[in-house]
Every structure is written in structure tokens, then in C-alpha cells.
Write a structure and sequence with these properties.
Structural class: alpha/beta
Largest sheet: 9 strands, mixed
Oligomer: single chain
CATH architecture of the largest domain: 2-Layer Sandwich
Distance between the termini: 50 Å
Radius of gyration: 24 Å
CATH topology of the largest domain: Dihydrodipicolinate Reductase, domain 2
Strand content: 15-25%
Shape: globular
Helix content: 25-40%
Order of helices and strands: EHEHHEHEHEHEHEHHEEEEEEEHHE
Number of helices: 11
CATH superfamily of the largest domain: Dihydrodipicolinate Reductase, domain 2
Number of strands: 15
CATH class of the largest domain: Alpha Beta
């Protein structure tokens, strides 16, 4: 039987930045699509009235440039506000009363993980967890130990089938397209292995800095912020075997197996960097050793990928904002033409942002008498303007009980296991100029090769 649909939505942290920037626009999108025929209860500590809560939702949509009066009227009819302290049992008693006869609420914890314990315990004591689902915002822990402890906490009140660990990155259309492209086309599979692939590079570059998040970023760093979650998720999609079956759990099983095959990263296989000027940011320690750039070399212990290095890097204040996968294929086994040994090998490029590009790099004969070639790129570009916003997609999936785009507990813990040895590695943090491609030391990870820079 397919999962039953949630019949109420409760989101804690209704006065926070996440709600303002992402949740209210997602709610309007769901209401416009006719998928929000339920009460939506926002819970927060702010001294707001019902009218002020609705005004906050309007302000959010105006700030995003997405306010539509008729659509907002539809959303506003669903919105309810509950002011309360997360540590006060009366908050959850009043929530229980507001839910009334609703039997399948979706509780969205858009709050810091340090408050999860209070909210989950409060919901359990108010008997608001039976038949309910819970959505958790990342980070899912700070390391392997804390991730295991967080899991144990949540599982005391919710079974795994009712837990939705949301990562907006997985709700993006281009990321889903990567998974689709791999398994919807037969031509890729014969070469998608160690016999034909020389190396894989994953780059998430950001041209901007920390955007005033100095205090928060001091607790995270690039490895915790995006490498452990976003970029390892992309790696899992590239490395996974074809799923056995058609249901969402089959895909999550296959991804989980690929996580298990990734060898834990050792300190010798990481280069950490920090852009010059980071220590002058508000909230940043004047002697900070936190990385704003990280490049790692990853190895995979599987039949398909044994011996193929995976290079992953991410950084702030780089030349462009772009995320892409670059797969370098091996040279032909027998060289027929003199120019081939010195030419770049074939490649596949998956550009995930800001635009979507699928590219095959090949060689073709140059016009003339000589058998001499030139590089040609076969591109397929896609427009992403009309794609569904990630939070709208993921909230809709959670309400339907579809867990395919949400991280499972075993995958979360395995991802932490992969990076655990380098989280507290206090080796050198190499300084780099804003606008560069990071510290020069990162080039050494690739040996005789060099990184492919997005946009080049």
C-alpha cells in the first residue's frame, strides 16, 4: 500500500530565517498547486498575533518577488500561529488541541539541532507523534558520534519510515537529472567503470564569501558545510550500482551501498584552505583555523571503481559560482594517430549549476589533407527557469510519505564515517587569494594531472 498523506503541517521555527526565505514560498507553491488542503501551524517564541504571522508570510513572498494576491489568499486561510516555548509542556498541549482530529501531522523542525530533544520529547508527551512524520533540517550531527546520538534520540519517538532528513540540494532538478541520466540511457553503462574512467572530479565553487555568517561558519567549515553532505551525495549517485527494483527504497539501498564502498578519507588526502580576509569577518576568530576551501582525494573499494581516484573540492571566493562533475576517460588502448597521445582524453561533463549542461568531449578530424584532429564538444543544455523549487518539491514529497530524496540514517552515518578522520585534523590551512582557484597545494592531490575548472 502506498503511504497515506499527511493531514496537517506543523513547522517549528516559524519566525526564523529558514521559514522566511524558503518555507513560506514553498507553502504558497503547494497551495497554488492544490496540495495544501490542511491546517498549517507555525510555532515560534515570537510575540506575534495571528495577523502578524500572516503579515510575516506576505513579507516573505514580497521579498522573494513571488507574491500573488489570489494565491496568497488561499495560503493565508490555512495558516495558524502558536506562540510557545519549546521547553514548556503547555506549548504542546495547545498544539494538540489545535490539531484536533488530525491523525497524520507532519512536524517540520526548522530549528537548531540543539532544540530537537526538547521538541521531540514535548511532542511525545503530548501524544502528537503517533501516525506523525518528522522533517529534520541538516546538519544531522557534527560528526559520527553526534549523528549516532541524534538518530537514537529521534528513533525513540519516530520509526525510520516516518523520518525525513531534508537536504534542499537533493531536491534540485539538476541533481535529480544526474541520477536519471545515468540509469535512463544504455550507452553510458559499458564505459562507466575502472576500465574506461581515469578519474572523476566534483567541484562546487562559490564566488561569494560567507555572507555575514561568520559565527555559524566558524562552527562548520567547508567540510561539514557542503562536502560531507551535498558533495558526497553527488559522489554516491555517480558510483552507485543500478538499483534492484523500482521503489524509492531500492534507490536508497543502492546509494547506501556506494557510501559503504567509499574509503574513509585520511589527512594525507585533504588540502584545507582559507581565503585571505576571512579572519576580518564579524564573528570570526582572529586566529581562525577554519577552512573555507577543501579538496579531498577519495578511493572506492568496489569491483567497478577500484583504483579510480575521485577528487572533490569546494570553496568560497573562487572565480565562479558553479557545480559540476567532470569525468576524464582513458586514452584509446591502441594509438593510430600521432596527435592523440598528447591530446586531452575524452571526457563527460555534468554541469549542475548555474545552468544544466551535459557534454561529451571528443576528437574529430580537422579539415585538410593530414590525419590530424581537434577537440569538439557535443553539448546538450537545459533551461532550469521553470523547475520546481527544492523546498516545495521536498515538502510535497514528505507530506506524501515519499522518502526517495531524503537521507536514510545508515547513509548519514556512513557519510560521517568517511570524513570523520579529517574533521578535527588541525593540519595547515593554506591561505589563498579571493578570486583564485584556491591554494596551490590542492594541485598536488592530482599528481601529474590538473583540475578542470568550471567555465574553462
Amino acid at each position: 500500500m502506498p503511504p497515506t498523506r499527511s493531514d496537517a503541517l506543523v513547522f517549528f521555527g516559524a519566525s526564523g530565517d529558514l521559514a522566511f526565505k524558503n518555507i513560506f514560498p514553498a507553502l504558497q507553491g503547494l497551495a497554488t498547486a492544490g496540495q495544501l488542503d490542511m491546517p498549517v501551524i507555525g510555532v515560534a517564541r515570537s510575540e506575534w498575533t495571528q495577523e502578524q504571522f500572516i503579515a510575516r508570510a506576505r513579507e516573505s513572498l514580497e521579498a522573494q518577488g513571488s507574491l500573488n494576491e489570489s494565491q496568497f489568499t488561499r495560503l493565508a486561510k490555512s495558516l495558524k500561529y502558536l506562540r510557545g516555548d519549546y521547553q514548556d509542556a503547555d506549548t504542546y498541549a495547545r498544539l494538540h488541541d489545535m490539531l484536533g482530529d488530525r491523525e497524520r501531522p507532519l512536524h517540520y523542525l526548522a530549528i537548531p539541532p540543539s532544540l530537537f530533544d526538547d521538541v521531540v520529547e514535548g511532542l511525545a508527551k503530548a501524544k502528537a507523534v503517533e501516525g506523525a512524520r518528522v522533517v529534520l533540517e541538516k546538519p544531522f550531527g557534527r560528526d559520527l558520534k553526534s549523528a549516532v546520538e541524534l538518530d537514537a534520540l529521534i528513533h525513540r519517538s519516530f520509526p525510520e519510515r516516518s523520518i525525513f532528513r531534508i537536504d534542499h540540494f537533493l531536491g534540485k532538478e539538476p541533481v535529480q537529472n544526474l541520477l536519471y541520466f545515468r540509469f535512463a540511457n544504455a550507452f553510458l553503462e559499458p564505459i562507466w567503470n575502472r576500465e574506461y574512467v581515469e578519474r572523476i572530479e566534483i567541484t562546487m565553487a562559490e564566488a561569494f564569501g560567507i555572507k555575514g555568517r561568520g559565527r555559524l561558519y566558524e562552527e562548520l567549515g567547508a567540510i561539514r558545510d557542503v562536502l560531507q553532505n551535498h558533495l558526497l551525495q553527488i559522489a554516491a549517485m555517480l558510483l552507485m550500482e543500478p538499483p534492484v527494483g523500482h521503489d524509492p527504497e531500492a534507490i536508497r539501498d543502492a546509494k547506501g551501498q556506494s557510501f559503504k564502498a567509499i574509503r574513509p578519507i585520511q589527512p594525507a588526502d585533504v588540502v584545507r584552505g582559507q581565503f585571505i580576509g576571512y579572519r576580518n569577518e564579524p564573528g570570526v576568530a582572529e586566529n581562525s583555523n577554519v577552512e573555507t576551501y577543501a579538496a579531498v582525494r577519495v578511493f572506492v573499494d568496489s569491483w567497478r571503481w577500484s583504483g579510480v581516484p575521485i577528487y572533490i573540492r569546494t570553496g568560497k571566493c573562487l572565480p565562479v559560482t558553479a557545480t559540476e562533475v567532470f569525468v576524464t576517460l582513458k586514452h584509446p588502448p591502441h594509438i593510430m594517430f600521432e596527435d592523440v597521445p598528447t591530446s586531452p582524453p575524452n571526457h563527460l561533463r555534468f554541469r549542475l549549476s548555474p545552468d544544466v549542461v551535459l557534454e561529451l568531449g571528443a576528437r574529430a578530424k580537422r579539415a585538410g589533407d593530414a590525419l590530424v584532429g581537434e577537440e569538439v564538444d557535443l553539448d546538450a543544455c537545459r533551461d532550469t527557469l521553470n523547475t520546481l523549487p527544492p523546498y516545495q518539491r521536498l515538502l510535497g514529497d514528505a507530506m506524501r510519505g515519499d522518502q526517495m530524496l531524503f537521507a536514510r540514517s545508515d547513509a548519514v552515518e556512513t557519510a560521517w564515517r568517511i570524513v570523520d578522520a579529517i574533521l578535527d585534523d588541525h593540519g595547515p590551512v593554506h591561505l589563498y587569494e579571493p578570486g583564485s582557484w584556491g591554494p596551490r597545494e590542492a594541485e598536488a592531490l592530482l599528481g601529474d594531472a590538473r583540475w578542470h575548472d568550471p567555465g574553462s
